[in-house]
Amino acid sequence: MAQIAEANRFNVQRDRMLKAAARCFNEKGYSGTSLKDVSRHLGLTDAALYYYVRNKEELVYQCYRRAAELGQEAMDRGRAEGATGLEQARLYIRYHVEIMVGERGPVAIMSEIPSLKREHREEILAVSRRHSAVFEAILQQGIDDGSIAPCNVRMTGNAVMGALNWIPKWFHGNPAMAETIVAEFPDILTRGLAAGQASCQ
Amino acid sequence: MAQIAEANRFNVQRDRMLKAAARCFNEKGYSGTSLKDVSRHLGLTDAALYYYVRNKEELVYQCYRRAAELGQEAMDRGRAEGATGLEQARLYIRYHVEIMVGERGPVAIMSEIPSLKREHREEILAVSRRHSAVFEAILQQGIDDGSIAPCNVRMTGNAVMGALNWIPKWFHGNPAMAETIVAEFPDILTRGLAAGQASCQ
DNA sequence: GCATTATTTTAATCTGCATTAAAATTTTTG
DNA sequence: CAAAAATTTTAATGCAGATTAAAATAATGC
Q1: Å between A50 CA and C19 C1'?
Q2: What is the C-alpha to C-alpha distance for residues B192 and A184, in angstroms, rounded to an integer?
Q3: By percentage, how much of chain B surpasses pLDDT 90?
Q4: Low-confidence residues of chain B, pLDDT below 50?
Q5: Are the C-beta atoms of B97 and B73 separated by less than 8 Å?
Q6: pTM for this prediction
Q7: CATH for the B60-191 domain, from 1.10.357.10, 1.10.260.40, 3.10.20.90, 3.40.47.10
Q8: Cβ contact (<8 Å) for B166 and A170?
Q9: Could you give the CA distance from residue A182 to residue A160 in angstroms, rounded to a whole number?
Q10: Third-level CATH fold of A58-191
Q11: Which bases in strand C are touched by protein, i.e. have an atom under 7 Å from a CB?
Q12: Over the stretch A125-165, which tens digit does the pLDDT of each residue have?
């Protein structure tokens, strides 16, 4: 129960702030965005942000926490709904992409983890590593159940995550593009995984 | 002839500086690295960097220029040496990856293009877009020559570039890992492209 | 070895933002 | 509607880290 954030005024504004910040950070870089830039998107003053967050570092941290939660949500759904490893991987990718380019986005790219204070950095790194590990487990499961051709799950996972994480770098809200991404990415990123195809080398 | 930088003292130090800066930026983020951080890697004072570069913005710009040059070098070699579009794509990926994880690396991730001054930003954006366009042309050529299955070249290109560009985020110099990356990535990123395989959906 | 040029350091200065405190305004509650 | 709580603004302050000028050292050419 305490898990689900109440939709009160505070949380609504806070969520708007995190989305605005994510957009700014993705588009203008961390150092390139001042708190004034973020607050301008909200029709507020820069100082007002301090009502929601202790400082800029925590703003980044919260953006990353939100990004991690959304990624995990997609992963959980994929795992729950997919029968084979391959299906789970494809569904995860689809859900994650849908979130990133849909109204719940933008999702912050985790480019500035090293700038976080130790406590926050370690938390984000841990959750980030766990995310990767779960995806690798899905791949391994796919290999075991015969839906995915044997491969180096670590490297394959890194490749897929990179392709996903990079999306906010070139997607900036164009709705037609969003549709295309959702339609294409799950296939593009899983086409190479499927078992039982000619290796064509 | 003027293209080839002389290997004099100045250029050698400058190159060391750009590599040190790329490493710092990749590992600690742009705002997380001070000029002192970079200079420490070179056994110099922060002020000494100003002998090689006008300011921090230009240091980033030069890192990105270098990254662009190395990427283009890999692309050129791939195009020259590959017979089919698929081979060209695979060779490009291999050469680019070799550069990124080899002694010529690290290569800076272009995360802070928006922080560059207009002139520099536009140059880097232009060269970056050209790079993507050339890769998409390779994919299209592969489709035309029958080596690559029909696909959305724009999206496929974005996916491959994302996977490549993200490498410096998780690779930090481990030589065994470097070998694995070079051995695996070209296959992982082209396995899904090849024509004439069961679609397995 | 002397003069010139290249490179680096020392020691300040400068400044854009982050940050804060207190006041003002808006919203909620009873 | 009055009082309390929540939210935002105004107006400073502070500081890390970029930048600069001048001096010091090292390299190079004649």
Answers
A1: 9
A2: 13
A3: 84
A4: 1-3, 198-201
A5: no
A6: 0.91
A7: 1.10.357.10
A8: no
A9: 15
A10: Tetracycline Repressor; domain 2 (1.10.357)
A11: 6-11, 16-22, 27-28
A12: 999 999 999 999 999 999 999 999 999 999 999 999 999 99
